[in-house]
Write a sequence for this structure.
């Protein structure tokens, strides 16, 4: 019995229904990690973020709108942060101050919106599909 024809047909069917990987998926993505939080001198909270750019693009623009949730899960405030520039194939450390709220009073940081995601020499793009969030801090970082 000749199995080549059924196997070739099966291979064509699999290729037809399997989505083609996007450039962002094949080249890596962009990871935002809340690495640690610590009390700041002014009574707020210092948040240390690591940005790991595994894409093939440097980013001239990368701005996030974050919702800071208190221990009851209620939005305390919105905070806009500008993390640009993000060089290609690099990990970048950025420190942002969350004013007037103690670190122990923050339960979660929600990525509310990406107000800018602009690769160098290119148009703004939707970075949500290539974005991964993680936290090593006692505060969750979520989409």
């Amino acid at each position: 019995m000749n199995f080549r024809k059924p196997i070739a047909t099966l291979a064509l069917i699999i290729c037809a229904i399997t989505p083609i990987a996007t450039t962002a998926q094949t080249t890596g993505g962009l990871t935002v990690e809340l690495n640690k939080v610590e009390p700041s001198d002014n009574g707020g909270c210092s948040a240390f973020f690591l940005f790991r750019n595994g894409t093939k693009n440097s980013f001239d623009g990368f701005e996030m709108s974050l919702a800071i949730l208190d221990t009851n899960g209620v939005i305390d405030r919105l905070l806009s942060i500008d993390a640009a520039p993000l060089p290609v194939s690099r990990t970048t450390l950025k420190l942002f101050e969350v004013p007037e709220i103690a670190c122990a009073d923050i339960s979660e940081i929600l990525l509310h919106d990406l107000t800018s995601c602009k690769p160098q020499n290119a148009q703004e793009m939707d970075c949500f599909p290539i974005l991964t969030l993680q936290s090593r801090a006692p505060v969750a970082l979520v989409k």
Notes: Residues 4-17 form the longest helix (14 residues). Confidence is low (pLDDT under 50) at residues 6-26.
